[in-house]
Design brief:
With about 350 residues, the protein is mainly alpha-helical. Helix content is about 90%, strand content about 0%. The chain has helices at about 1-25, 30-65, 70-105, 105-125, 130-160, 165-170, 170-180, 180-190, 200-235, 240-250, 260-270, 275-300, 310-350. α9 (about 200-235) runs antiparallel to α10 (about 240-250), α9 packs antiparallel against α12 and α10 runs antiparallel to α11 (about 260-270). The two termini are about 20 Å apart. The model has no long low-confidence stretch (mean pLDDT about 75). It is a multi-pass membrane protein. InterPro entries: AI-2E-like.
């Protein structure tokens, strides 16, 4: 019994020392901040390159298994990916800039439409009990604050993007060498991992890839299709700002359950400033896209690769949105999947030792 008490005392002491170390570390921010900024400037392009390599490598391996030499497979997929990406930026950025400029000029009109919607909801709920009415008003106030904060973050992110143009320009080169030396990188990781952890580390990475890899690749592909179809549909029916709305609908589609609603609201507000007919068309387009995604693309491409209950996913989204806004919503599910694998492996490790 005494040994057990000593163990618990030792654990609490280690925990307190760890928390104290973290506290002192953040208090010394002014000292290590320049080193952190330098590390961040190097790490971000490397992380993006590693993610792109992770996405493209399975496609290259499938092409290689058909009998095509691996260097040729890498070159074909590499040129297709960055060629299409570069062409999209070349053609899309001028259109996007013009639409953003026009959107900013007409923003008061859209804001007036939004305010009329809020006033209408306010009038309809005015006769409800005070508690419910106050909660609805508070909910809309919080939503407005969240939207304002999100727009500010997006603008700041776009501004800071130009500060990293040169660093981001090296991403294609990093991706090429990572794809070319993929096996050597795996070997280096193998030798750098302590010998007694190698088998567990390999199984851990395999489980993460099995749980998350197909979901991420499938979800990104579905978002690309949904965003493209949304853009073409809105453009065909002459809805304003089809490129901006298509990008927004495609990007927010990454977020399970809540994404379609977030992407639909701006489209409906813009449609409401045009005509009732346009609103009906946009509603039909959005419902059509969600039907295609939920009944065709989702089951066919993504499937049930997560093996997670919807309640867990929703709780993860709520936590992610509270912590980091829209970015948190996008990263919530992958982080929970990784945490689940970590917990399973830690439990297995404890049982074995």
């Amino acid at each position: 019994m005494r040994d057990n008490q000593i163990k618990w005392l030792l654990r609490i002491t280690i925990l307190l020392l760890g928390l104290l170390t973290v506290f002192v570390f953040f208090k010394l921010y002014s000292i290590w901040a320049p080193f952190f900024l330098m590390f961040k400037a190097i790490f971000i392009p490397f992380l993006i390159s590693a993610f792109i390599t992770y996405l493209l490598h399975p496609v290259i391996e499938k092409l290689h298994r058909t009998g095509m030499p691996r260097p040729i497979s890498i070159l074909i997929i590499y040129l297709l990916f960055f060629g299409l990406l570069g062409y999209g930026f070349y053609k899309g950025v001028p259109v996007l800039v013009n639409q953003l400029r026009d959107l900013s000029e007409n923003f008061p009109q859209f804001q007036a439409t939004y305010n009329r919607w809020i006033d209408s909801i306010h009038d309809q709920t005015d006769r409800w009990p005070d508690g419910i009415h106050d909660r609805i008003e508070r909910m809309f106030e919080q939503t407005e604050e969240w939207l304002a904060l999100t727009i500010e973050r997006v603008i700041n992110s776009l501004r800071s993007l130009f500060d990293y143009v040169l660093l981001l320009a090296i991403i294609p080169f990093l991706v090429f060498y990572m794809l070319k030396d993929y096996d050597q990188i795996k070997k280096a990781g193998w030798y750098l991992t302590p010998r007694r952890w190698r088998n567990e580390a390999i199984q851990f990475l395999k489980d993460i890839d099995h749980s998350l890899g197909s979901y991420i690749r499938g979800q990104l592909f579905v978002c690309l299709i949904i965003g493209t179809v949304a853009f073409l549909s809105l453009w065909f029916f002459h809805v304003k700002y089809p490129l901006i709305l298509g990008l927004l609908i495609g990007v927010t589609n990454i977020i399970p359950y809540f994404g379609p609603v977030i992407g639909a609201v701006p489209a409906l507000i813009i449609a409401a400033t045009m005509s009732t007919k346009t609103v009906i068309i946009v509603v039909i387009i959005i419902f059509g896209l969600q039907f295609i995604e939920g009944n065709i693309l989702g089951p066919l491409i993504v499937g049930k690769s997560l093996h997670m209950h919807p309640i867990v996913i929703m709780l993860a989204l709520l936590a992610g949105g509270e912590i980091a806004g829209v970015v948190g919503l996008m990263l919530a599910v992958p982080i929970v999947v990784i945490l689940r694998v970590v917990i399973v492996h830690l439990a297995q490790f404890r049982r074995q030792h």
